[in-house]
Request: fold
Amino acid sequence: MLAPTITVNGSAGTLSGVDPSTTALDWLRSRGLTGAKEGCAEGECGACSIMVARPGDDGGTRWTAINACLVPAASLDGGEVVTAEGLGSPQSLHPVQHEMAVRGGSQCGYCTPGFICSMAAEYYRPDRMPVASADEHDHELDHEHGPNGFDLHSLSGNLCRCTGYRPIRDAAYALGEPDADDPFAGRCLAAPPALTSTRQEGPTGVYVRPTSLAAALDLYAAHPQAVLVAGSTDWGVEVNIRGARAPFAIGIDRLPELRTLDVGEDVIEIGAALTLSEIERRLDGRVPLLAKLFPQFASRLIRNGATIGGNLGTGSPIGDTPPALLALEAVIVLASTDGERDVPLADYFTGYRQTVKQPGELIRAIRVPLPLSGTTAFHKIAKRRFDDISSVAVGFALDVADGIVSRARIGLGGVAATPIRALATEAALEGQPWTADVARAAAAVLRQEGTPMDDHRASAAYRTATLGTALLKLHAETATPQEVGA
Ligand SMILES: Cc1cc2nc3c(=O)[nH]c(=O)nc-3n(C[C@H](O)[C@H](O)[C@H](O)COP(=O)(O)OP(=O)(O)OC[C@H]3O[C@@H](n4cnc5c(N)ncnc54)[C@H](O)[C@@H]3O)c2cc1C
Ligand code: FES
Ligand code: FES
Reply:
């Protein structure tokens, strides 16, 4: 195994001696790169944002902004990192830095290097296209995209307490295209950093990242208590806020066998180590229910790290993918040295943060059967519109043929110790006409599903009320005006 290496701002260096619990943020700052800041240490503020070179969709490289506070520095072995310092210098500002400076996008400056990195990743997004319209005011109709195609959601994980955001938006919308000789744009044309196997030992434990699924499963069989680390958006919070340490951690984020996405005739198979951003891009709306879920899941910064396998691996009752995947009747593919087994997601959760997963088993993929239902929705009730965990989440997948609900699948999160199917509501809908009366009657059944609790996110009564409202909303959005009024 080669000594761990990393390229930071174009200079190659070594990661030797870094402890597995040391975050990328702490490691960069210890090297004097203090632009990236710690605001929260739990993925909420974006002050720590950096850019990493990730595989693009076309064999090239994509600059991707992530939260440096959440990922172990060891996981960057073999990678390329760019911080705000590497983008430009006071004598030669990067276009993003220039626009932020001249438009008042920075006041106290604490958040600025993080904004700069998120903004630069969006600046280099390959499919960012200026809007075609000749009318410069047209973009005002869409409050989330600039005339230059800049997607404001790319900044949804960055907080600023000084500027009020308007100057930051002005800077983002003023950006042009990268110059022909822009080195960061040029880097995107070449292959991404190669996959390297990693082993880092430090005072708190060992971090190992194999390069094949077989090697990972052998390691996991030998160390069944090991922590699997994928995007580290959950694990990083455990490390920073709850002081968790892994005596043995296995990095699975780059395993090629966990990073495929296949669309077949009968099934779509999604690799467990694909990030939500990658799945969103690769599916490109192919699964409308998931397309409705993705923008509501955390922030772009988190979605750039968070994997779908990690969301199911936590066993959380308030993860956002389970309600949608339950409605889609998804199947989880579990892999171990004994081989693979398929488990319907409805049978996967066994109790609060408990699953059927056995020691030494990991999630290799998630399968979504085809064809998909025609009427789908994802309702997330949270305290903030973006970048918040659900109080309640509901995934709907209904087949409505000739005005009759021929099939109904409904997944719920946040109303029981595990994500659940709303079986009684499904039965109340199936075979019935999709009318306001039927929706009202079924909404009353839906309010009785689960065993909601009072907690700091919501009261049980509020959770119950939102369940019924979700079905009425679905009906109002999908039925004809006459049916809604009936
Ligand atoms: C600021 C913030 C906002 C968030 N917002 C949301 C939100 O809106 N909705 C939501 O659902 N979640 C949210 N999360 C939680 C988190 O981002 C997700 O659960 C994410 O999908 C976890 O994926 P990961 O790859 O980062 O997992 P990791 O942190 O790497 O791992 C999480 C757990 O899953 C296990 N694991 C990982 N991969 C596998 C696998 N392939 N097989 C078996 N076990 C595995 C790990 O061992 C670990 O126990 C948020 C987190 C933060 C920090
Ligand atoms: S320090 Fe706040 S997101 Fe990392
Ligand atoms: S400029 Fe002060 S926090 Fe953003």
